[in-house]
Amino acid sequence: MGHENEAAAAEPILLREVRDGVATLTLNRPRARNALSTALMAALQEAVDACAADEAVRVVVIAANGPAFCAGHDLREMRARPERAFYEALFAQCSRLMTSLVRLPKPVIARVHGIATAAGCQLVASCDLAVASTEARFATPGVHIGLFCSTPMVALSRNVGRKQAMEMLLTGEMVDAERARQMGLVNRVVAPERLDEAVAELAATLCAKSPLTLRIGKEAFYRQLEMPLEEAYAYAGRVMTENMLARDAAEGIDAFLEKRRPVWQGR
């Protein structure tokens, strides 16, 4: 994975646009195949944190410029600093970023137009939803270079079945977009020319929902996954009770019974 030349280096490594409640965060290291350098991860972390605090943002889309979506960690940067402390800090930074996407109180959609490998595959798996072009490809290929994709494994194994995750991790082989959909890594696969339209449609659908309800539901979804069955039901029951007492739930139910559109207040 190469570094940008001087002209490209003048470009921001992350682009941010907010339109109609949708914040699009675009990885912008095309010559480096959007490798997750420490600088790019820091920029993405800052943008994700800003989206969490911005009431105008209802949905976040992670996109990328250039031929690849994200080719994983920046191997040149990693080899330039062969130090335990650097590696520990690097993987902690990446883990915090991926966890932030899961904890973000708003839905996150990955817009995947090209390859998503290693930590790039982890990035897709860490998003709540993913829409992929038929040209997208996915892999955890660390095994080819003697570096097992252990941190990407955490997100991957929480999205696909064990046998499928192990096959990707042990072989490092590329998986096409349709196979990734069948495995549960992505939600929808569309022709390249329809990718923006499909992402926009999904984002608009989410923006039409109560932001409070989506926040409650997203948090509950991930928390209950880690619980035993009885504990999960007890927790979900408490969540639904609190949700039922919210203004938006009363409005939504009344609107349904009265056959009208609900007016969400986010409380």
What descriptive keywords fit this protein?
267 residues; alpha/beta; 2-enoyl-CoA Hydratase, Chain A, domain 1; Lyase 2-enoyl-coa Hydratase, Chain  A, domain 2; three-stranded mixed sheet; 9 strands; globular; fatty acid metabolism; ClpP/crotonase-like_dom_sf; lipid metabolism
Task: Itemize the secondary structure elements and their pairings.
Layout: H1 6-9, E1 14-19, E2 22-27, H2 38-53, E3 59-64, H3 75-80, H4 84-103, E4 108-112, E5 115-117, H5 119-126, E6 129-133, E7 137-139, H6 150-156, H7 162-171, E8 175-176, H8 177-183, E9 188-190, H9 195-207, H10 211-225, H11 229-244, H12 247-257
Parallel strand pairs: 2-3, 3-4, 4-6, 5-7, 6-9
Antiparallel strand pairs: 1-2, 7-8
Helix pairs in contact: 2-4, 4-5, 5-6, 10-11
Number of helices: 12
The sequence of SSEs as H and E is: HEEHEHHEEHEEHHEHEHHHH
Q: What is the number of beta strands?
A: 9
Tell me which CATH architecture of the largest domain applies here: Alpha-Beta Complex
Query: What structural category do the secondary elements indicate?
Result: alpha/beta
**Which percent bin holds the helix content?**
40-55%
Instruction: Tell me the CATH superfamily of the largest domain.
Output: 2-enoyl-CoA Hydratase, Chain A, domain 1
